Amino acid sequence: MKERFYFVRGQHIATGEAVWVYNHTELNPPRSYAYCCPHCGEVWAQAVVERAKWLFLTSPCERCPNGLYPAGSLWLPFHVEYMESWPLAVWQREAALWLNRDVPKTERKAA
Predict the structure, then answer these.
(1) Taking the model in full, what pTM does it have?
(2) Whole-angstrom Cα distance, residue 71 to residue 20?
C-alpha cells in the first residue's frame, strides 16, 4: 500500500492511503495532487504520493475566495475515490471550512 501525505501551506496535516481512481471508465494508479490558486498562482496545498505522476488542479487558496466552495477547500467532486480515501484529519479540516470554523492544526491520532 502506498501512502499519500497531505500538506497545506507547507504544513503536514495528515497521512492516508493512496488509492487507485477512475478517470471516466479507466482505473488509474495513485497520483500526487497540487492545488494551484488561479488568482495568485500559489501552490498552496499538496497531496503527495512518492514517485507518482502529478495532477495540477486550480483551486482558490484561503486568501483568494471564489464563492463556489470555501476558500482553501481540498474538495474535488470529480475525484470520488480520492476524497473517500481522505484520513480523518482532512475531513475535519474540510468540515471546519464548510462550517466556517477554525481549521484544526494537527492530525489527531486514534486512541
Answers:
(1) 0.82
(2) 27
Grid cell locating 39: 488568482
Domain ranges of the chain: 3-98
Which among 11, 9, 26, 13 is positioned nearest to 86, based on CA atoms?
A: 13
DSSP string across the chain: --EEEEEETTEEEEEEE---EEETTEEE---EEEEE-TTT--EEEEEEETT--EEEEE---TTS--SSS-TT----TT-HHHHHT--HHHHHHHHHHHTT-PPP-SPPPP-
Q: What is the pLDDT of residues 48-82, one digit of tens each?
A: 999 999 999 998 998 887 777 788 999 988 888 89
Judged by DSSP in three states, 53 sits in: coil
Tell me: the pLDDT tens digits for 7-23?
A: 999 999 999 999 988 87
Does pLDDT of 103 surpass 50?
A: yes
Distance of alpha carbon 92 from alpha carbon 33, whole angstroms: 19
